[in-house]
Amino acid sequence: MGEGLAMRLYLFALLSSALLAGCSSEENETSPLKLLVNRFNADETPVQPTRASIAGFRDPLLLVQLENGTSSFLVRTRTNGADRIWQSADGVSLTLTHGMLRATRGMGQDLMSASVPALSAGAAVERVHYYYDWSGETQVQRWTCSRVNLGAHTVDVLERSYRVLRTDETCNLDGKVIRNTYWRDSSGFIRQSRQWVSDGVGYATLSRVVD
Predict the structure, then answer these.
(1) What is the Cβ-side half-sphere exposure of residue 93, based on CA atoms within 13 angstroms?
(2) What is the predicted pLDDT for the residue at 7?
């Protein structure tokens, strides 16, 4: 089986599972996704991301902020092994594995899937990104990356401060450079990160605002 066909089958399965998770969640009136839709309806004036706007929300909650100024809260709708699928009230979804961005849906030029080693993998790694081009063909990007730990920092996450360890990741592909940043607490949990999505989207800042 060729790499392109295998990747298409994988992407179809990933997208199908995310859609099924969203449908099953919608059927439950008390599901985190339904509660999120009720509170942050996409047809209403966009909610400003503040602590007050999520008061009383007890389920795991992720704040995603893009470079164009848009932001959304996402709830975890599915767990599949190490994968965590998060979805917003207006249908945007992300797949994270140990806090590393693996896929997006509904963001425009989506990251269809990615192979990204965990931060514990070492200082020199390769990350592989898969995208669709305008013709529907799969485009594969293989990035050569180096990681450096920058020690203890304080990071502000939606009006709360956390002591974290910062790791910077610099990746190169034929002279093009992207830089991802991760802020981890003492247990290794990624509290906040700034990760590359695509040329069309740019970077996304992911903040875990409710554990």
Answers:
(1) 24
(2) 44
Give me 84's structure tokens: 């965590």
How many CB atoms lie under 10 A from the CB of residue 154? 10
pTM: 0.83
CATH match of 60-210 with 3.40.50.170: no
Nearest Cα to Cα of residue 61 among 32, 39, 100, 99: 32
Residue type, 177: V
* Single-letter amino acid code for the residue at 4: G
Q: pLDDT by residue (tens digit) across 8-43?
A: 434 444 444 444 444 444 445 568 888 887 777 655
- Can you count the helices (H) and strands (E) in the chain? 2, 12
CA distance 183 to 154: 9
The alpha carbon dihedral of 11, 12, 14, 18 has a sign of positive
Question: Helix or strand or coil: residue 33?
Answer: helix
Domain boundaries, the chain: 60-210
Torsion of CA 158, 184, 57, 59, to 10 degrees: 160
